Amino acid sequence: MKQLSVSKILKLVEARRGLAGQNMSLADLTGKNLSQLNFERTLFSEATLTGANFSNSTLKGVDFAGADLKGAILRLANLKEAMFDGANIRDADFWGADLSGAVLTRVVNILQAGFDGASFADANLSGLDLSEAQNLNQAKFDRANFTQAMMQGIVLENVSMSEANLQGADLTKARLLHVKLGGAELQDAIFKDANMEGAYLNRCTGKNADFSGADLTGADLQDTDFTGAKFVRTKLASANLRNADLTNADMRGVDLGGAVLFGAKFVNVRGVVIKE
What angle (nearest 5°) sits at the alpha carbon of residue 62, between those of residues 83 and 156? Predict the structure, then answer.
């Protein structure tokens, strides 16, 4: 595919057509107004897009590999299945953008971008360092892949993460109040000292997960498999553990005051004795 010159790109932008599927690699479009245009499947690898305005544009399947998106505006943009391998998104604004199915595994400076109200449904964020992130509130992460992600101290309040894959992720000291994790894969995930009051963890797979010191007061954990999980000094007061499987769990020092335990399976549990 022939690489377009900047002058040719700007002529197409002015005509508002013929932009989809083009090769715009290495182009310098700093500060350009590229809003409300269709760039579907366009190649922007290694392009300089600092401060460019892509608001309300269609960027489905776009390849931003190595692109400089510093300060770019992508508000309400359609970024489904877009690829950001090595892209710099420092100070970029993704407010309300749709990043469903996007690949962000090697994106640079994700903690300095704005994602309020963005959708990451089915997105791949595996292995990313999201430690202490506070810029993801009100985002949606249904079915997103967070395997092995580093999420210590992350703030995700009232966020939807239904059926997300958090296998092996580290969420130590995370703030996850009322987070919705129904049907999520939590095997081997670490939630030590996390604040998860009122969280929804029903129908999850939480084998060998570590909730030691976490606050799960009032959380919904019904129908979840917690085989081999750790709940050492965990607060489970008023939590719903109906039909949960706690076989071989470590529950030393756990607080179960007022918890619903009907149908829960306590086999070889360490630290608590449940009378039938």
Answer: 45
DSSP-derived 3-state class of residue 98: strand
176 exposed, middle or buried (CB, 10 Å; 0-12, 13-18, 19+)?
buried
Dihedrals phi, psi of 83, to nearest 5 degrees: -115, 130
Q: In 243-264, which positions are buried (b, 16+ CB within 10 angstroms) versus exposed (e)?
A: bbbbbebbbeebbbeebbbeeb
* Same structural domain, 120 and 144: no
Structure tokens at 100: 């469903």
14 contact partners, CB below 8 Å, separation of at least 6:
none
- HEC string of 36-86 equals CCECCCCECCCCECCCCECCCCECCCCECCCCECCCCECCCCECCCCECCC
Beta strands (DSSP E) in 94-200 are none
- Within 10 angstroms of residue 89's Cβ, the number of other Cβ atoms is 27
Residues 167 and 206 grouped into a single domain? yes
Q: How far apart are CA 60 and CA 49, in angstroms?
A: 17
Which of 94, 124, 154 lies at the terminal end of a domain, its last residue?
A: 124
Q: Pull the structure tokens for residue 244.
A: 């949960």
Do residues 152 and 103 share a domain?
no
**Domain of 184, in residue numbers:** 127-276
Q: pLDDT digit string (tens) for 55-90? A: 999 999 999 999 999 999 999 999 999 999 999 999
Tens-digit pLDDT profile for residues 180-222: 999 999 999 999 999 999 999 999 999 999 999 999 999 999 9
Cβ count near 126 (within 10 Å): 18
